[in-house]
Design goal:
Blueprint (H helix, E strand, L loop, with lengths): L4 H14 L3 E4 L5 H8 L4 E4 L12 E5 L14 H10 L2
Parallel strand pairs: 1-3, 2-3
Length: 89
């Protein structure tokens, strides 16, 4: 799922202005990653427990429902929630 160019620009501008240390999202698309890149913001993406700990001086994008680029991490159904901690360590 790709967002529009205008959406990416608005998000990138807000991210650049906000200097966020952590961004939490339940979206599993890559819109925020593209916006961070567009804003020139160095960042790390956490999709599962093994992606922690965070690096310092970088924006940390925490994808609570996984990511489209790692289908095994996506959380949509009740079973996904129940199995998340054993699947995504």
């Amino acid at each position: 799922m790709e967002g529009s160019s205008k959406s990416k620009t608005i998000i990138a501008r807000l991210i650049k202005r906000g200097h966020f240390r952590h961004i939490f999202t339940t979206n599993y698309d890559q819109l925020i990653e593209h916006a961070l890149q567009g804003a020139g913001c160095k960042h790390d993406v956490s999709r599962k427990d093994a992606d922690f700990p965070f690096k310092r001086k970088r924006t940390n994008l925490i994808k609570l429902h996984g990511s489209i680029d790692d289908l095994g991490t996506i959380v949509i159904a009740e079973d996904d929630y129940l199995d998340f901690s054993t699947k995504n360590q």
